[in-house]
Structures are given as C-alpha cells and as structure tokens.
C-alpha cells in the first residue's frame, strides 16, 4: 500500500505511487511516471526539459479516457512538481488518484 511522507507539511497528504502516465506538452508526447500524488497535483518523473509554468496534459494509464490539464510549478532533482489547477477537473482528479493510492 502506498504511504505518505512522515514529515510532510503540505495542506493535503501526498501518497507515494509509481504509476505510468502519458504527458502531452506542445507538440511532444512523453511517457512519464507519477512518483507521488495529492489532491492538488503530483511529482512527475521521466519527462525532460520541463520548466516552471509549462502547461501539460496528463493522461493516467489507469484512466486513459481522461486527460488532466496541469501546470509545472517547479522542477527539482526529484522531478517536475505539477499542479492540477482547473477547478472543473479537481473532482475527477481526486477520484483518479484515490484509485492510485489504494
């Protein structure tokens, strides 16, 4: 079962996962992995060249019928920190990650 970070101070818990996803950015399509997920976003790995404020579409392999609009909030050695910012997609994102965190 995925766990949470023990000393995480975020508003919502992050759940450790290793889930494949497809990322659409500009004219590029990448295979990536979500390292962890939360109600507001995720840590994305495996997609080179991302910078803060890049706009993405994220398609989860477990939910290929839905693509979520996201924005890169920042990039670190761990990967790209992405946020699901579209209010109309927030509930669908929460349902999708609930499946990943079980």
TrEMBL record:
Q: What's an example of a GO molecular-function annotation for this chain?
A: cyclic-di-GMP binding
The protein's superkingdom reads Bacteria
SUPFAM superfamilies, sorted? PilZ domain-like
- What Pfam families does its record include? PilZ
Q: Which residues are in the PilZ domain?
A: 8-96
InterPro entries attached to this UniProt entry: PilZ_domain
Protein name, please?
A: PilZ domain-containing protein
Native organism? Neoroseomonas marina
